[in-house]
Specification:
With about 750 residues, the chain is of the alpha+beta class. The chain is built from 17 helices and 26 strands. Strands 1, 2, 3, 4, 5, 6 and 7 form a seven-stranded antiparallel sheet that branches.
Length: about 750
């Protein structure tokens, strides 16, 4: 009975391996998190660059289209001037410019004609044509001075003199039919048109969008700020780099085109055919804000994972330390167990299960049998002669082999000196390593059995006293029997009343059902009578024709056919009613076909549910005969259907009932009636057979239906009944009946069978 010793070295190695594993795992997590954050930053920057290029491509396409529209307007005005008849004097050109319609365009604000002398006239849908001094603008001075330059020139943005709205001028030299310069024509583009589109792009992405001239001034910027319009950035070194770079690209800078602090990512694209570049800029704080959130989440997740690993590592180390302490505790427990086993006041012994030899025995056991420990160890109980009856030993070992335990088995043991004593033996099987062992404990009950014998003697005396009292109770029981018989008579009368009530309902239903075929017969009979009278009159007057006779015979054939079918239906209903009524009004026993009897009963029950949304389905076997009470069986089915219609389908718009029967054995019949109604609660199901229990008290329920059914099944038909139901799951009633009903007892207690009726 020694526990195996645990080594300390495996536990120490386990602690070192656990620490090494935790360290490697934490380092791996930190490295993986750092690598993921770095990769995410690169992907974020690449994605932002791609998005910026997509934005400037769209903006470049829009700006190019707008400027080309302005150039096309200038071309149309030039062609109109060249195609006009007569001299191309100043008044003619002013009239052509003033009459040119630009109101259809949302982005064009005004047309302007400037004479070679510097006088100009502005024509706008927003303001009447008026003269102004246009030579103040640098692009006009340049074109007047260099009249040979036929390129379109985009000028500096300026505020309109008549309404202070910012515009971007697009101008070119106007030539006559022979190529002589006639002055300058210019079209103003609304700066707000660019600002509206660029503002949406900038607001959605927290960015800035700029139209930058190659000459080094800002044409338009969004978000709009007046300090940026026409700002001169020719001294910025980034502009020279931008002029010589590719059509589109990206770069970062701290202060190019923006006054806000911080490095920004710029993406640009040059306009095709115009010395203008579209620039899209976002500060790195906005670009890397999502990346910073993701990085924080990664770091937080890594920190939580490291904390979890540290917690698990600490828990395992703590568990290992506890295991070390448990080893010491087990050694102490082993010593305590041996001490408790030896000093226990209850006799105990430990036996090998394969050889039945004693391994240990405590002091109380040795004292009980009068042996020394060295005389017991290594020997079996048979060798020591402890068993008085060997059969008890066999019974004990068999019980231990079967269930693994025996509790308080009474046996006879023999002491070393030869006297016998009675004891209660308890045993348990147990396993120690690969060895099976049996632990026994016993309690000496010899004195207790002697006391029990004395008690039995006293009980005999008490029984004689009880006999005297019993005779007195029999007299009282007789009086109670008379009272009980009176109660039973009253219950029988209630059952008879319930049956008569059901029969009355049956009569009313059948009478209603007979109205239809009898009414059809009356209708057909009266029709035939009327046609016979017509035929007789025609015959008496000599006006009888072949067609009239033929029509009469056809009508008579159809009428008699209808008449016979209706009378057959009535005859069938009356026959079924007579049989069912006779059966239910008497308790006569006879042989009958189960299918025929149940169909006749259900036929008479049709008026109860025919005009309701409820249906009854029959599944009945053929060729099954019974020697029983058909009236009681019909009463049983009537109660089932009535209960289902009255209770089961309350509040339901439709319902279905099923009556099925089957021969469950050679001499047994199983009837099953089920519905898909509202079912019953557990309390109602437990009280369903109680007399006068009903959930419709005061609403047509008597509470005797299922009580009568129970009495019919158990007392008359000799079967059993079971009900399964739960709320909203319907009800299923199963009745087990013998094919041959048992004999009934009459009032004198003699067994006899009722006279069978054919």
């Amino acid at each position: 009975m020694k526990l195996p010793a645990f080594s300390m070295r495996p536990l120490l190695r386990a602690r070192l391996l656990l620490l090494a594993f935790a360290t490697i795992t934490i380092v791996t997590l930190v490295a993986q998190t750092w690598w993921a954050i770095a990769q995410d930053r690169q992907q974020t920057l690449a994605s932002e660059t791609t998005n910026g290029l997509v934005a400037v491509r769209l903006l470049e396409e829009h700006a190019t289209q707008t400027l080309q529209d302005a150039v096309h307007t200038l071309d149309r005005v030039s062609r109109a001037v060249q195609d006009s008849p007569g001299d191309k004097d100043t008044s003619t050109i002013r009239r052509i410019v003033a009459t040119h319609d630009i109101g259809h365009s949302r982005h064009l604000k005004a047309l302007q004609y400037v004479t070679p002398q510097g006088l100009s006239w502005i024509s706008s849908p927003d303001y009447p044509t008026h003269a102004t001094q246009a030579s103040l603008h640098s692009h006009i001075r340049y074109l007047l001075k260099h009249s040979g330059d036929n390129h379109v020139l985009v000028g500096h943005p300026y505020a309109s003199a008549y309404d202070s709205q910012w515009v971007i001028p697009v101008a070119r030299t106007l030539y006559g039919p022979k190529g002589e310069p006639l002055g300058v024509i210019s079209v103003d583009i609304r700066l707000s048109y660019f600002g509206a589109l660029y503002a949406r792009v900038a607001k959605e992405n927290n960015a800035s969008v700029t139209l930058l001239s190659d000459e080094g001034f800002i044409l338009a910027r969004s978000p709009f700020e007046a300090r940026y319009v026409d700002r001169d950035v020719r001294d910025n070194p980034r502009l020279a780099t931008l002029r010589g770079s590719a059509v589109e690209g990206s770069f970062d800078d701290n202060d190019f085109l923006d006054d806000d602090e911080g490095t920004k990512l710029y993406t640009y694209r040059k306009l095709s055919g115009f010395p203008i570049t579209t620039v899209y800029a976002r500060d790195y704080a906005s670009v890397f804000a999502p990346w910073e959130r993701r990085s924080f989440e990664r770091v937080l997740l890594t920190a939580l994972t490291i904390a979890l690993i540290g917690t698990l590592t600490y828990s395992l180390l703590f568990y290992i330390r506890r295991l070390q302490r448990t080893q010491n505790s087990l050694r102490e427990s082993e010593a305590k167990f041996l001490s408790m086993f030896r000093r226990s006041p209850v006799p105990h012994c430990l036996v090998r299960s394969d050889t039945n030899q004693f391994l240990e025995a405590n002091d109380a056991w040795l004292q009980q049998f009068g042996f020394r420990l060295d005389e017991v160890i290594g020997h079996s109980a048979v060798e020591l002669g402890l068993w008085v009856y060997p059969g008890q030993r066999t019974q004990l070992l068999s019980a231990l082999a079967t269930s693994g335990s025996v509790d308080r088995m009474e046996i006879e043991h023999r002491h070393r000196d030869g006297h016998c004593f009675t004891c209660l033996l308890s045993g348990r099987t147990m396993q120690s390593g690969a060895d099976g062992m049996l632990l026994f404990s016993l309690v000496d009950v010899t004195r207790q059995r002697a006391v029990e014998q004395e008690i039995r003697d006293m009980n005999q005396q008490l029984e004689r006293r009880v006999q005297v009292r019993t005779e007195r109770l029999e007299i009282a029981n007789h009086d109670l029997s008379v009272a009980l018989e009176s109660v039973r008579s009253m219950q029988t009368e209630l059952v008879r009343s319930e049956k008569l009530a059901a029969l009355g309902s049956l009569v009313a239903g059948v009478a209603h059902e007979l109205n239809t075929p009898i009414g059809n017969c009356v209708t057909v009979g009266s029709t035939l009578q009327e046609q016979v009278n017509e035929l007789t009159q025609a015959f008496a007057k000599g006006e009888l024709r072949r067609s009239t006779l033929q029509r009469f015979t056809d009508n008579a054939t159809r009428g008699t056919d209808i008449l016979m079918r209706a009378l057959g239906r009535a005859n069938h209903l009356i026959g079924s009613f007579k049989r069912v009524a006779v059966d239910q009004s008497s308790d006569q026993r006879r042989q009958f076909d189960l299918q025929t009897t149940l169909r006749e009963v259900c036929l008479t029950l049709e008026p109860m549910y025919k005009k309701s949304p409820y249906q009854l389905t029959l599944e009945l076997p053929e060729g099954v005969t019974m020697d029983s009470f058909p009236g009681a069986l019909g009463q049983l089915i009537t109660n089932f259907v009535s209960n289902a219609l009255q209770h089961g389908f309350e509040g339901r718009a439709s319902g279905h009932m099923l009556l099925r029967a089957e021969a469950s054995a050679l001499d047994r019949i199983t009837l099953q009636f089920s519905d898909d109604g509202i079912g019953m609660t557990e309390d109602a199901r437990n009280r369903i057979y109680d007399p006068f229990f009903t959930t419709k008290l005061g609403h047509g329920g008597s509470g005797l239906g299922m009580n009568i059914a129970y009495n019919i099944v158990h007392e008359l038909l000799g079967g059993s009944i079971d009900i399964v139901s739960s709320p909203d799951a319907g009800t299923c009633i199963t009745v087990e009946l013998p094919r041959c009903a048992p004999a009934r007892l009459d009032a004198t207690g003699e067994s006899h069978r009722h006279q069978r009726v054919a």
